[in-house]
Specification:
Length: 150
């Protein structure tokens, strides 16, 4: 399907397709998290855990930046993760005004579950798209995100 969107009067389906994809992905992730016994946290909490898996001990400011969320939102998410025992915070010895958030044993023990869920999702995508198409799609989605986040 090839469309030319040369004028401002021609509408794209990008918003609708992105919304549809987001709903399908959210449903898949919620079901997968429930299947591995992680029904005490939401997807947003999973994003925080994934940042910590990737970057290790991190400040609240860095968590907000890496997860593309506000500091206030990160504060709420981290507070719940602390109450549930997934993370803890420790004083930043270099700057006592900030704290580091780090994984607890419970949080670290979930890493394998998250990786399995991610692998399952990636496998579904790999069935439908070639490696080149995946790379192109990722590039295009990043461009759209950067444009919309301005």
């Amino acid at each position: 399907m090839s469309n030319s969107f040369s004028t401002k009067t021609e509408h794209t389906l990008i918003g609708q397709l992105t919304s549809r994809q987001s709903r399908a992905l959210r449903t898949h992730l919620i079901v997968a998290m429930h299947q591995v016994g992680m029904d005490d946290i939401d997807l947003a909490h999973g994003d925080v855990l994934n940042v910590l898996y990737k970057h290790g001990r991190t400040t609240m400011t860095e968590l907000a930046r890496y997860s593309h969320r506000s500091k206030a939102t990160i504060s709420v998410l981290v507070d719940k993760l602390k109450r549930l025992g997934y993370v803890t915070s420790v004083v930043n010895e270099m700057d006592a005004r900030s704290n580091f958030v780090q994984l607890t044993k419970k949080g670290e023990d979930c890493r394998e579950k998250f990786e399995k869920i991610s692998d399952q999702m990636d496998d579904k995508i790999r069935v439908a798209l070639t490696a080149n198409e995946i790379a192109n799609l990722q590039d295009l989605m990043e461009k759209v995100c950067l444009c919309l986040e301005k």
